[in-house]
């Protein structure tokens, strides 16, 4: 009859739809309950018509009406990503990128110092024009060019070495910048759609943020009040969003920039 009483229902990766649930533990990717009393429910996407005295945990919770039941409040935990590791990774990447940029500038300064020799600068300019076809090399110019090549062979070798090192540093910095961009994109994607909406609060209701990267599979097999105990033990200290016996909630999570 689409009812659950003192039941344990688990559909990780799947969908649960119950008309009436009481004293039950329910876990599923998408969970829809029309009326829940004294239940523990965990889902990615949770929709409940009326929740009374329930412990609810979800990435996204949409509740019509919430209230207490015989002195037990309804608690809604919005599961948000624990970004501590991501922040540390971003900080480390930023430091590495800054060091690559510093070394690149140092190589540029060394190259500029060598090129500050007017004769060498003129030779390099002529060489560039020859390679680009802007000037035609006459026999006399070719002979003079060879003499200059021999004269500046050492400087050219150093410039070539510095140029390759600079390119390597720039490539490394670009690679780390790409990693940092991917990390930020992943954080934004993980935060998308997380929040809680309660259209009407008619009894004591608490809505809070819980930081955790644990997926539903980590709570597989939880029954009774094990689910709430496991979640409280695994997640960092909750941050309260709402606590009252009347009103409404419309809260959406936004990842830190």
Strand content: 35-45%
The total of beta strands comes to: 10
- State the helicity in percent bands: 40-55%
Mass-distribution shape: rod-shaped
Please tell me the overall pLDDT: 88
Order of helices and strands: EEEEEEHHHHEEHEE
The total of helices stands at 5
Tell me about the biggest sheet?
A: 10 strands, mixed
Q: What structural class is derived from the secondary structure elements?
A: alpha/beta
Question: How far is the first residue's CA from the last residue's CA?
Answer: 48 Å
Compute the gyration radius: what is it?
32 Å
Which spans have pLDDT < 50 for at least 5 consecutive residues? none
Would you write up a description of this structure?
By secondary structure, this protein is an alpha/beta fold. 42% of the residues lie in helices and 35% in strands. The chain has helices spanning 84-115, 118-132, 139-151, 153-191, 226-234; strands at 3-5, 8-22, 25-37, 40-52, 55-67, 74-80, 195-201, 205-211, 239-244, 247-252. Strands 1, 2, 3, 4, 5, 6, 7, 8, 9 and 10 form a 10-stranded mixed β-sheet that branches. Helix 1 (84-115) packs antiparallel against helix 4. It starts with a strand and ends in a 5-residue tail after the last strand.
Question: Topology of this structure?
Answer:
Elements: E1 3-5, E2 8-22, E3 25-37, E4 40-52, E5 55-67, E6 74-80, H1 84-115, H2 118-132, H3 139-151, H4 153-191, E7 195-201, E8 205-211, H5 226-234, E9 239-244, E10 247-252
Parallel strand pairs: 1-2, 2-3, 3-4, 4-5, 5-6, 5-7, 6-8
Antiparallel strand pairs: 7-10, 8-9
Helix pairs in contact: 1-4
